[in-house]
Amino acid sequence: MKAQMTTxxxxxxxxxxxxxxxxxRVFHWLLVISFGAAYLLGDSERWRQIHVMFxxxxxxxxxxxxxxxxxxxxxARFTSFLHGPRAALRYVGSxxxxxxxxxxxxxxxxxxxxxAMLALGVATGLSGYLTLNEFGGDAVEELHEILAxxxxxxxxxxxxxxxxxxxxxxxxxxxxxxxxxxxxDGESIRASVSSPRRPIVGVLLASAVLIFWLGSLLIGxxxxxxxxxxATMAQTAEDDDD
Length: 242
Ligand code: HEM
Prior knowledge:
three-stranded antiparallel beta sheet, elongated, binds protoporphyrin IX containing FE
């Protein structure tokens, strides 16, 4: 389907194109929740199992996204956002100009952040798995923490990049990640083609994650409660000793 033309009052014609399919959007927001929750619970002995549950979710989501990067829709495919470092620098430079470069899918700088986040997600998840199973000792545990913190830094860069591009293109890119649509009067948008929605794949992905969460909470629930009360008792005993 060609980009749909709509009219914006006083602004000539504005094209609207569906860029992000449902699976990419479901993946994105579930990754935000899972990374955020795993990071926040990382230091807590009491919530260790929930931290691990979100860690496995991150690994599962990224495994899906890698597969979708090969078989997914147009803008979800890795081949649509393979850009060299020079293209990334040129894009960043163009943001300050009067006519910033416009890209329908991921821009060249954003693509680097996306690849970095996918790689850091895999590395953080795997080092967490090794730590949980006591392979590699303190060094691997330390590495797990370093990777998680590096990932957080890249997330800040990513969000700053999304804000900068949104301002430069006068377009709310965060909203596009919710609705799937990008709007704009750039040539690239006018000439582009909408992606199919693929809602069933998105629903299957969301269902798999929800079932995994419910199953983990039902099976691990008693252990989590037992552990948290043990941790509370140990903490109280420590406080009493002090
Ligand atoms: C609330 C803050 C966030 C906002 C507003 C946001 C927004 C976006 C937007 C607009 C895109 C598309 C970028 C583009 O137009 O090229 C994107 C892509 C992406 N974001 Fe975020 N993001 C947020 C937080 C995060 C976090 C916390 C993570 C990782 C844990 C993350 C990981 C990703 C990934 C991996 C992609 C690539 C999506 C794909 O192609 O599958 N984002 N984000």
